[in-house]
């Protein structure tokens, strides 16, 4: 699977969040270039896990809705004499 592509603005926002997290939680300061590099790494290495989880959640919801639809179609069936 290819790494997700983000707009410049999205990447900058993500890098800003990484910088803020590292500063606030780990007392580490990094520059924007390093933060964007880390965002790229996380997207490439961890992105598939989040993507697959999203697909699994979508599949579960779809199965639930299909079961509801199947029930509604069964309700439309008429008795055969």
From TrEMBL:
It comes from the Bacteria. InterPro entries: DUF2164. This is DUF2164 domain-containing protein. It comes from Haliea salexigens.
